[in-house]
Fold this sequence. Notes:
Blueprint: H1 3-15, E1 16-22, E2 28-33, H2 36-39, H3 42-59, E3 65-69, H4 73-84, E4 92-96, E5 109-110, E6 118-126, H5 130-141, E7 145-154, H6 159-164, E8 170-175, H7 176-184
Parallel strand pairs: 3-4, 3-6, 6-7, 7-8
Antiparallel strand pairs: 1-2, 4-5
Helix pairs in contact: 1-3, 1-7, 3-4
Amino acid sequence: MTDHSALVTLLAERSTKRGQFTLASGRQSKYYIDARLTTMSPEGLAVIGRLGFSTLRQSGWVIDAIGGLTLGADPISYAISYASASSDHPLRAFTVRKETKAHGTGKLIEGPFREGDHVAVIEDVITTGGSALRAIEAIRAAHGTVHGVLALVDREEGGRQAIESTGVSIISLVSASQIIKTLEG
């Protein structure tokens, strides 16, 4: 089984629920993908790390670091960073807070992000693209260059187009239709 097939299976079996759900975007859906049930599991972390790192290498994006809006992007970023550790160009992982920290250093971006970094924004599930766009805005405000967005799952509900309309390209590891096909297969 390929890493891609294994990831689709994990997401279908562990993370996808059927019913009536209100998504973070406010939209209604007949299915809900709680990617954290996969991204925070040992098997999920291993597969996501390898597949995500391989996909980033093939993307042509020359990047120093990866990260996105907490909490969804965090385990994905850390898994990919870990998978890159023995490569000729390890990737540092960082987290973008939902709001600026009110104490201590007052940072919006935590971890080893550096001004001038070339980055890929990481996202767990893209519906409208709002979380990825917030992360892009924070990274650019901190003088980072965003080369693209790597999404674990694209729900295929307009988020890709919203992100691409800002001039940022997107790669998704899995589409919702692949997960649904596996559930129904």
